Here is the input.
Amino acid sequence: MEMLIDFPGGSRVDAHFGPYTVKTDQPGMSGPGSAPTPFAVFLSSIGTCAGIFVLGFCQQRGLPTEGIRIIQRAHTDPATHMVGNIDLEIQVPPTFPERYREALVRSAELCAVKRHLENPPTFNTYTQVVE
Here is the structure.
């Protein structure tokens, strides 16, 4: 997948791929930015990816998704200021069948974003002169 990253002004940095644009911004002196930070978008990809698998699990079994939600909590290591632990709490209503609860967790664990974090890619950063 190729993405074009550009700088539309201020602290904004956007990613364009296919028909989509993901807008990001950094908070400024006057308050929050006009879009989430790149790191917030990264973190949201974890929970939304897990959500895709939870949704698919329920749809394949004809289970209603009303009342299901995922609460994601990122815990930062005070020494490194890096995220050291991420919790994904899948909240289900009391009517959700108990026999599917562990399988729901296993389905969320299939998230491709999570699996890539567990086996990270190699990064190659370089410049290229274009005319």
The first helix runs from residue 38 to 61. The longest strand covers residues 83-91.
